[in-house]
Amino acid sequence: MRVAVIDYKAGNLTSVLKALRHLGAEPEVTDSDLVVLARAGRIVLPGVGHFAATRRLDETGMTGEIRVAIARGVPFLGICVGMQWLFAGSSEAPDQPGLAAFPEQCARFPEGAEKVPHVGWNALEVNPASRLLAGVSSGAHVYFTHSYRAPVIAATTAATTYIEPFSAAVERDNIFGVQFHPEKSGDTGLKILSNFLGVESEPAC
Amino acid sequence: MLTKRIIACLDVREGRVVKGIQFVDIVDAGDPAELAARHAREGADEIVLLDITATHEGRKTLLDTVRRTAKELFVPFCVGGGIRTASDAEQVFDAGADKVSVNSAAIADPSLIDAIGRSFGAQAVVVAIDARRDPSAADPVRDAQVLVAGGRKVTGRRVVEWAREAESRGAGEILLTSMDADGTRAGFDCELTAAVSAAVSIPVIASGGAGAVAHFTDVFTRGRADAALAASIFHFGVSSACALKAELVQSGIPVRLPC
Predict the structure, then answer these.
(1) Does the pLDDT of residue B145 top 50, yes or no?
(2) Per-residue model confidence (pLDDT) at position B22
(3) Which residues of chain A have pLDDT under 70?
């Protein structure tokens, strides 16, 4: 299956590509080519680094093409900053809007006794209705590395607690996001990516 | 709850895992890709590969080793040793590493930390610090000497101020090795680890001195470590990272289980 993986020049895509290939997908990287997005059966927006880097999506016209693909029913997965981009924005880069598929804002973890960033393996509290997390039980650990997080909302399908509960996974129709790194989360992560490759296309309402 | 990480470390020379015994003999302990896969399967939360190859030809071997090791590895993978420039780091990332660890090159030119962080994100930069307590300093622990060249060369930097600078330049984690404890198997230097961990907001990985399961419990509580490096897990009287974690959880340490 043709999977478009978006490179917005904010880090290293090798691990995501490797995991997708391991699962039998044919990832195709694009940093601006809208044709790659237009013919993709799946779109993945990975992410490490700064929310401001998502500006490139607007500048290249990829944001518009992603909206079209999502409306057509193409399953979309945002990882880490890629998931935060599905929200209206983030206090990390207040002038840079996200896709606003979810109207809430992302914000930094509050300062306090705990360290920020949140780095390491933490547990998921899974909503069993999730298609992306099918076969993943509550208590399963996945790998996180981030300082900003999305609030728990109606579309949250997994919550994780660090200082307070936040959205570890969100899902609505064909829009999926995970705050953690499935490509670095062992068998649990591969299961989640495999679920994503297997979900039915379902046009967003 | 965020768990404490057990990180398996592989020392690699000329493409093979080596293990010094009694600080002298180098024993061939196997293929890095196979060993990394085995550690991941047996519960290691992360793999660190430290290249101790000194030669230029060895660098090419390293990239090949990283590529082969990363291929089927789906846990975080950090590579260190001999990374002197942002372009060295880029080659290692392209070969499949998620993080690079920099040590002496960062001391020589601290802006290396900024440069790698800018291109690959702070989460991808681990600053490795080798430190030895300085009995002549006002605070022998916070002002422990930072050493390079395998602990042979004093740099003039002090552990806490260097860790803070590394953080401010965009390091994502600190890999702290106590040169006093290293090789003793008498336990981690918990005071040193706690001093650094309290001084920065980024995770601190403790290294050096582990010889028993209780040492890990100690460094995760008293030492305030976020992760601990286990150079050879089989030295601790347990068969795997998973077995080590099964014992840690008994002492109330949060770990990723089942592995």
Answers:
(1) yes
(2) 41
(3) 202-205
Instruction: Report the C-alpha gap between A21 and A23 in whole angstroms.
Output: 5
Q: Which two tokens stand for residue B8?
A: 């398996």
**Residue A1 in contact with residue A197, Cβ under 8 Å?**
yes
**Confidence band (pLDDT; 50, 70, 90) for B238?**
confident
List, edge to edge, every strand of the sheet that includes A102-108: A87-90, A102-108, A148-149
Helices in A33-183 by DSSP H: which ranges?
34-38, 55-59, 62-72, 81-84
pLDDT at B182 over 80: yes
User: Which of A18, A19, A145 minimises the CB distance to B123?
Assistant: A145
pLDDT-derived band at B231, boundaries 50, 70, 90: confident
- The residues, ordered by sequence, that sit 6+ positions from B178 with a Cβ below 8 Å of its Cβ are B131, B132, B188, B189, B192, B193, B206, B207, B208, B209
Does residue B76 sit at the A interface (CB-CB below 8 Å)?
Answer: yes
Could you tell me if B217 and B235 are in contact, meaning their C-beta atoms sit under 8 angstroms apart? Answer: no
* Unique residue bearing structure tokens 């592989």: B10
Nearest to A119 among B95, B120, B203 (CB): B203
> If we measure between CA atoms, which residue out of A104, A109, A94, A113 comes closest to residue A51?
A94
Q: What are the phi and psi torsion angles at A189 (to 5°)? A: -65, -40
What does each C-alpha distance from B125 to B102, B112, B121, B254 come to in angstroms?
8, 10, 7, 25
In three-state secondary structure terms, A106 is strand
Provide the terminal-to-terminal Cα distance of chain A, rounded to the nearest Å.
24
Cα end-to-end distance, chain B, whole Å: 16
Report the gap between the CA of B42 and the closest CA in chain A (Å): 11
